[in-house]
Structures are given as structure tokens and as C-alpha cells.
Design a protein that fits this description.
Shape: globular
Number of strands: 0
Number of domains: 1
Largest sheet: none
Distance between the termini: 21 Å
Structural class: mainly alpha
Length: about 130
């Protein structure tokens, strides 16, 4: 399980720095013999765990309010899978990765969540 940051995160840069540190620790535990697949899976695990982190990990002034998460969730619910992924990436860019992970979790679609994590890795948000 990922650690809780010392202070609430208040910017995308702080989020990425925290998650990259968590990823470095995870990969260190895997050892130098770990292959690309193991490193990729470690990155996905970090993203999954980050998406389950408590609201308090994000500073109050940076965190999406519940009604904002709900608004994004409703707006995405009937969109195509591809459009949902693109919009989630847009949320990550505008509001930060943890807020986007909160929205995708609220959508409660494991396939969408998995594809979003894959896209985050492919786009270089984490783990590249």
C-alpha cells in the first residue's frame, strides 16, 4: 500500500513527485531482475492505490468537491469509452491526477479504470 504524504498535496507537481517516489520504492522492492511487465504492473498498482487514497491526501483548496466529482461523473456516464478516457485525461491535466482518479473510481467501471491507468502510463503521467 502506498504511504500517505506528510502534508496534503496541493498541485499536480506535488502529486506526481509523491507518486514517482512511491513507484521508485515499489520498483526497488522488485529488484533489478524485474522485467518490463513487472514494472508496468507496479505502476498500475500505484495508480490503483492512489485512486483509493483518502480525500485528505489532497489539500482542501485543491481537492474537487463532492458535487464537482458528481458533476463530472454524470457528464461522463453516457459518453463513449474513448471520450470518457479523453475527458478523464483532461480532468487530470486541469485538476490533477488524484482528482481524475477519484472521478474514474466514482464511475465504477473496472474496464474504464484499467484503460485509464494504461493511458496515463502511455501518456507519461507516471512510470515512464
Amino acid at each position: 500500500m502506498i504511504s500517505t504524504p506528510e502534508n496534503p498535496l496541493s498541485s499536480p507537481e506535488e502529486e506526481i513527485s509523491w507518486l514517482e517516489q512511491e513507484l521508485r520504492e515499489r520498483k526497488k522492492k522488485l529488484g533489478s531482475s524485474a522485467g518490463e511487465k513487472e514494472r508496468f504492473n507496479a505502476t498500475k498498482e500505484i495508480l490503483k492505490e492512489a485512486g483509493e487514497s483518502p480525500d485528505e491526501v489532497i489539500s482542501e483548496n485543491y481537492r474537487l468537491k463532492p458535487e464537482e466529482v458528481e458533476k463530472h461523473t454524470h457528464a461522463l456516464a453516457d459518453e463513449s469509452h474513448h471520450k470518457q478516457i479523453d475527458e478523464l485525461l483532461s480532468i487530470a491535466g486541469e485538476h490533477g491526477l488524484l482528482n481524475a482518479l477519484k472521478v474514474v473510481r466514482k464511475l465504477n467501471n473496472p474496464h474504464l479504470t484499467d484503460d485509464f491507468h494504461d493511458r496515463l502510463i502511455a501518456e507519461g503521467y507516471l512510470g515512464k
